[in-house]
Amino acid sequence: MLSYEPVGGEGYGVLIVSGRVESGDFDTVVPLIEKDIEMHGRLRLLEKIEKFTGMEPMAFVRDIQFGLPLIGKISHVALVADAAWMRTAGDLFGGLFPGKVKTFEPETAEAAKIWLKSAA
Fold first, then answer.
1. What CATH number did the domain enclosing 34 receive?
2. Could you count the other beta carbons within 10 Å of the beta carbon of residue 69?
3. Contact (Cβ atoms closer than 8 angstroms) between residue 58 and residue 65
4. Number of structural domains, the chain?
5. Which SUPFAM superfamilies is this protein grouped with (predicted)?
6. Strand partners for 88
7. pLDDT tens digits, one per residue of 6-30
8. Torsion of CA 54, 86, 104, 28, to 10 degrees
9. Cα separation of 103 and 15, whole Å?
10. CA separation for the pair 65, 26 (Å, rounded)
11. pTM attached to this predicted model
12. Distance separating alpha carbons of residues 1 and 28, to the nearest angstrom
């Protein structure tokens, strides 16, 4: 499941990935993220991945269709993941992303928030 908490007073949006991601999850999340980008220009994003159990194949396609056009509009991503392999993937693929990506363990989620708040 995907959910999104719009940019608030802290200055960043929160994308939560929990369990299995379904294609229909994007119907709710995408308009909210697009609205935040429209309002703020560039987006700082806290992505929390909790107990990820996989993605429906069409959800993977929708993720690419949605994500690629917005890649230059997200300036910072703080990736908080409970699975070590996801943090490793974030570190590896973060170099391909035009914005800044930093990974965090769940125990250091507060540090992720501080990093996003101080990002310029």
1. 3.30.750
2. 10
3. no
4. 1
5. SpoIIaa-like
6. none
7. 988 888 999 999 999 999 999 999 9
8. -30
9. 14
10. 11
11. 0.90
12. 11
Q: Is the Cβ–Cβ distance between 19 and 3 less than 8 Å?
A: no
CA distance 117 to 28: 25
pLDDT, tens digit (0-9, with 9 covering 90-100), for 56-110:
999 989 988 888 888 889 999 999 999 988 899 888 888 888 889 999 999 999 9
Find the farthest-apart pair of alpha carbons in the chain and give their distance in angstroms, rounded: 36
For residue 65, give its domain range. 2-118
Reduced 3-state DSSP string for the chain: CEEEECCCCCCCEEEEEEEEECCCHHHHHHHHHHHHHHHHCCEEEEEEEEEEEEECHHHHHHHHHHHHHHHHHEEEEEEEECCHHHHHHHHHHHCCCCCEEEEECHHHHHHHHHHHHHCC
Q: HSE of 32 in the Cβ direction (CA atoms, 13 Å)?
A: 17
Residues in the chain: 120
Distance CA 42, CA 12 (A): 10
